[in-house]
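Risk mitigation, structural track. In case the binding assays with iron/sulfur cluster fail to produce interpretable data, a predicted complex structure has been prepared as a fallback.
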Amino acid sequence: MVEPKKKYYEKRAQLLLKNLHNRHFEAYYCETAAQALEKALELIPEGATVGWGGAMSAEQIGLIASLNAGNYNTIDRDKATTPAEREKAMKQCLMADVFVAGANALSIDGQMVSIDGNGNRVAAIVYGPDSVVIVAGMNKVVDSLDDALRRARTVAAPSNKQRFAVQTPCEVTGTCADCKSDGCICNQILITRNCKPAGRIKFVIVGEELGL
Ligand code: SF4
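Fallback model:
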C-alpha cells in the first residue's frame, strides 16, 4: 500500500469507526491483513461453533483457514458433498455461536449494505448467531447510503456473479440489468443501520483492498 493511500484510509477509517460506534456496532481498524486476522481471532472464542457465508475478505486475510485449522466447531458448506448437505450447513449457520461475513458496501456514516441470492447470509446477519464478525476492506467504504446501494448493485454483485455458472445478464456484460432470472444473486438487499443488541455485530475494517 502506497503511503498517501494508507493515510487516506486511516483518516477515513477514524470517521467510519466513530459512526459505527454511534450505531452500537463494535468496530476496529487494522492497517494490514495480518493485524486483521489477529483481531478477528480475538473476537471468536475457541470452542465456538462458527459458520460463514459470502466471506471472501475473511478468506483473503486467512481467517477461514485459521478457523478450519483451529479449535473451533466450523460449519463449512464448501465441504458438503451433496446439495442437501450444503443446504443443511447453511441452515446450521443460523444457529452458530459466531457468523463471519463480508460487506458488499459500507457508507461512511456507518451503514452496511448486503446483497444475497439465497438469503442465508443476510438472515444470519439479521438474527440467530449471538455474534457476527464482518471483515471488510476500506475499498468497500463510500460516501453515502445511496452510494453504498449503488456499489453493492453495480460493482459487488456483477463482479461476484463472475464466480457462478448460472447465466445472468451481468455475467455476460459485466453490467447489472436488474434481472429476475433463476441465477439472480440479488434477491435480498439488506441495510444494517443500527446494531441491536449493542455489540452483536463486530466490524474488522482493514486498510487494504479486499473482496469484490
Ligand atoms: S443482472 Fe441480476 S444477478 Fe446481475 S447484478 Fe443485476 S440483478 Fe444481480
